[in-house]
Amino acid sequence: VLLDHHAAHERLIFDSLLTAKKRKQTVESQNLLVPRLVSLTPVEARSLLEHQQLLEECGIIFEDFGDNDFLVKATPAWINEDQVEDLVTDIVGTTLETGLKPDRDNMEIELFKTMACKSSVKETTRMSHDEIKALLADLDANNSPRVCPHGRPITLTITFTEIRRRLGRTS
Question: 73-84: string of b/e by CB count within 10 Å (b at 16+)?
Answer without folding.
Answer: ebbbebbeeeeb
